[in-house]
Amino acid sequence: MIFDTHAHYDDEQFDGDRDGLLKSMPDLGVGTIVDVSATYESCEKVLALAGKYPYVYAAIGVHPDEVGELNEDKIQHMKELCRNKKVVAVGEIGLDYYWDNESHEIQQKWFIRQLELAGEVKKPVIIHSREAAADTMYIMKNYAQGLGGVIHCYSYSREMAEEYVKMGFYIGIGGVVTFKNAKKLKDVAAAIPIEKIVLETDCPYMAPEPYRGKRNQSSYIRYVAEKIAELKAMSQEEVIAVTEKNARDLYGI
Description:
The chain is an alpha/beta fold. The chain has nine helices and eight strands. Helix 6 packs parallel to helix 7 (about 185-190) and helix 8 packs across helix 9 (about 235-250).
């Protein structure tokens, strides 16, 4: 069964059909979904979804674009939420120098604090990094030792991906790998052992071909698996099976 390691079903784009869509997932070949918070407010929303559907789990964290709203009281509340048995990770956390919604200093401060939170609650991390390769690697090497986790929506070099794998992290690959111009990510997917790859949608964003530009959803992962199978000379079924095992190992499910 497909394991979607990174979704945002709490997003308003699903307000019209969220319940019907999530209930249909087992029939569409999707066995497990991790719904990932991006704002402090969404932490409660992803936990509510995880409580409603047995195959949905939650990750608690605040995206770098939104960390300006954080303070230590909110971190302590997030720590309490992490004690729920359906919470499997701290994320998504990291750095985003593309949008630059928050200063680099503020992003780094709360990235490090949320890595510390993951250590306190003994959960893996889901890392968001965009246009911030060097600073992300520096912080990960200095503050993420022993945590484990996934580099979500990976967009950097093959060499850096190999370095993260050596550090014990999985590489998250989604719809971008199906795009014609995604040569760098295809090189990464071909080079990294299948045992260190997990599949993700980032839905409602990043839909694969042939749905590029439309709302993404978990069953579309089969197109990602198909492309990785092509790159690795494997069957699509084998890619889905191995990456499901990887995701279960990653999240302890």
